Every structure is written in C-alpha cells, then in structure tokens.
Amino acid sequence: MKSFVLFVAFVSAVLAFEEPLRFYHETAGIREAARIKQAEEALDFDGGRITGGSAAALGAHPHMGGLVITLTSGATSVCGSSLLSNTRLATAAHCWWDGRNQARQFTVVLGSIRLFTGGVRINTSNVQMHGSWNPSTIQNDVAIIVIGWVGYTNAINRINLPLGTLANNLFVGTTATAAGFGRTGDNVGIGNNQFLSHVNLPVITNAVCAQTFGNVIASTLCVSGANGRSTCPGDSGGPLAVTSGGQRVLIGITSFGSARGCQLGFPAAFVRVTSFNAWIQARI
Ligand SMILES: *[C@@H]1O[C@H](CO)[C@@H](O)[C@H](O)[C@H]1NC(C)=O
C-alpha cells in the first residue's frame, strides 16, 4: 500500500512538469510565419503606423537575423538567429531539423524590423548542425548558418561570444534581452502591430527551472517567465543578450518553452552559449 502511495506521488510529480514544445515547425513555426506575414501585409495597408518606432527599434538589435524558412514540404516557417561575423550566424538546430520537419532553405533577414520585406535578405542552405543535436532530449540545440559576406552598418552588426571572464559566468540574476519576430502574447491576433520586438528577462538558476521542466541540463540557460513576459513561438533560434563593458554579448539561443503557451508564467529555456563557445568559435 505504501509503495502504491509512493508510486502515485511519483506519477503526479512527473505529470506536474511542463512538457516542452516539440516539433517546432508543425506545432508553432508554420502557423506563426503565416500570422506574421498577414500582420505585416495589414500594416502595408496603413504604412504610416510603423514609421514612428521603427528607426529606434532597427538600430537596437543589429545582430538580429530573422529567418524565413522553406521546409522540404514547401511550407514556410520562421525563426531567429544572431550575426557572429560577416559570414556566420548562430541559431537553434531545431530551426533546421525539429525531429520531424526538415528545412531546405533559410532566408536570413538582416537590418530589418519586419520579416517578409526590407533589410538585407540572403538565401542559404549551408547550415552546420551540432553533431549531437537530439530533438527528443533537446540537447545541443545549436547550429551555425553560413552566408555570403555581409557588411556592417548602423543596423547590421555582429554580437560577441561570452569569452574571457564571461566564459564561466552563469549569469544568474542578470537581466538579459531577448529579441524576435514572434508573437508578443499567446492570444495576439493580426490586428497587433507586427515588427521585431524585445523583452528584458532575469536569468534564473537551472534548479529553479527544473521545478517547471524536470531535468534541466547544464548547457541550458533559463529565464523567468513571470508577469507574462517571455519568449514566444516564432522567437526560436534568436538572441538572448547582455551588455558587458559596453559590448553586447550573446548568452543564449532561444530553444524551448512550455508547450501550453508563453504567457503562463513558466520559464523559457535557451541554449547556454558558454557551453558551446569552443564549438562555435571553431566555425566562425
Ligand atoms: C530566396 O528565396 C526565396 C524563397 O524561396 C525566393 O522567393 C527568392 O527569389 C530567393 N532570392 C534569391 C536572390 O534567390
């Protein structure tokens, strides 16, 4: 009887954990790309609305690379990425292969606060996946995108890796900035202004994050999702950055959140860039 009680307690503890969002393209990315496209086209109809805030937002994240993704099925999906050099960007491995859906081309969108028009737009199928990317366990969710040379401008610039004194920093308690073209809430319709947005989020310990997702591996970095502020579907692969010594530093790559939604207060999980410094440096 006691073992039965323990078993029930164990099962309910397991069930209490949040299921991470999996098979990103079919569960979120394709729907999100269609929503962004429709919202951007609605803005075209009334172009005056976006002029005001766009210039400031444009220069604010010069390392941001939007990804318009063509899947082998022909469907269009969306992710983000971060410019690391004139020819390389970092993204999440699941943006190229989510365990069920394979991409065949990324259109990298640099220097634009809109995803489907504007900026410098570069097509590529050259993606270097982490050899141990595991869609089941969401381990090693990192990839490098290779593009033809792009020059830096006020709106296009590289972001640093967390090297030197930052290489062993866990960043707990630090406020970091996530950027993306994804939705700004679980119930955002096309009526909302659609452009690149950003949110400041405090980094939490992996132990606290594990209270939501169960086991959280060391190479994952989590931020608090309190007060409905978090990354959302569509933001996958995009940057989580801090400022250190006046320089912007990439500390996370948007990896996963709760399958139930992005505004429910659960943490959001990122690839911990310090865990992959050497792997990334060998490729940029
Ligand atoms: C890039 O890919 C998109 C989507 O397939 C296509 O519409 C566009 O013409 C391509 N651009 C170039 C320069 O090849």
UniProtKB/TrEMBL annotation:
Domain Peptidase S1: 50-284
SUPFAM superfamilies: Trypsin-like serine proteases
This protein's UniProt keywords: Disulfide bond, Hydrolase, Protease, Signal
Gene3D superfamilies (alphabetical): Trypsin-like serine proteases
Transmembrane domains' residue ranges: none
InterPro entries named in the record: CLIP_Serine_Protease (IPR051333), Peptidase_S1_PA (IPR009003), Peptidase_S1_PA_chymotrypsin (IPR043504), Peptidase_S1A (IPR001314), Trypsin_dom (IPR001254), TRYPSIN_SER (IPR033116)
Example of a GO biological process term: proteolysis
PROSITE patterns named in the record: TRYPSIN_DOM, TRYPSIN_SER
GO molecular function: serine-type endopeptidase activity
Signal peptide: 1-16
The protein, known as: Serine protease 13
Organism (species): Antheraea pernyi (Chinese oak silk moth)
Lineage summary: Eukaryota, Metazoa, Ecdysozoa, Arthropoda, Hexapoda
